[in-house]
Amino acid sequence: MKVIYFGKIADVTKKTVEEIELQDKNVKSLITFLNEKYAINLSEMQIAVNQNLVSKSELLELKDTDEVAILSAFAGG
Amino acid sequence: MKKKKTVFIEGQITSSFIGNAIAKHQTKTQIGAHNIFLGQVRKDKIEDKTVKAIDFSCYQEMADQKLDIIREETFEKYDLTCMHIYHSLGKVEVGEVCLFVFVSAPHRPQVYEATEYIVNRVKEEVPIFGKEIFEDASYQWKTNV
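Structure tokens for the assembled complex are given below, as produced in the milestone run.
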């Protein structure tokens, strides 16, 4: 699954895109993965699946074709 | 087929760009009121550091979608003739404009409310990221509060 990073998150991961293989393909296990690999806290990120923000607490299933984006705090304006 | 709107501009939004945008509306004679919001990069002091510029980036596909929704819902909520949103990408120095919201309607009350509504939604919902670059070249990531 392709995961893209934006803002501060991309700074922490030192990349803008990554191919991630999860055993359980859902939002919760993706968060666990990001926390273990990069020590990114839940409160520091938002997750968008196919350009829509999703709840970080749900077990939303992720498909290989989904565009998954990890976003840091918005700062427009 | 919906016309694709250009929102993102590389670098600052210049006063001549803003002036031209106003001039283009002189032919739309049903308009009786314009309202404009300009966001300018502030020389913030954070502890002992001073902001020199903000480097903006965005998640373009999602930003375009969100801006489309904001535009549609603003037109549903307010009786407007037209509205324009422009936001900078890349480096914008302190004192330069990075957000330009331009709302026009036949009458005045609508444009004040609509402008506030649009600016709030752009700040909260559009995935734009900003790196505050300090005078000593270090930086921190800006957060809308």
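Chain B touches chain A at residues 39, 54, 56-59, 61-62, 65, 87, 98-99, 119, 122-130, 141-144 (CB under 8 Å). The helical segments of chain B are 15-23, 60-77, 108-125. Further analysis is deferred to the final report.
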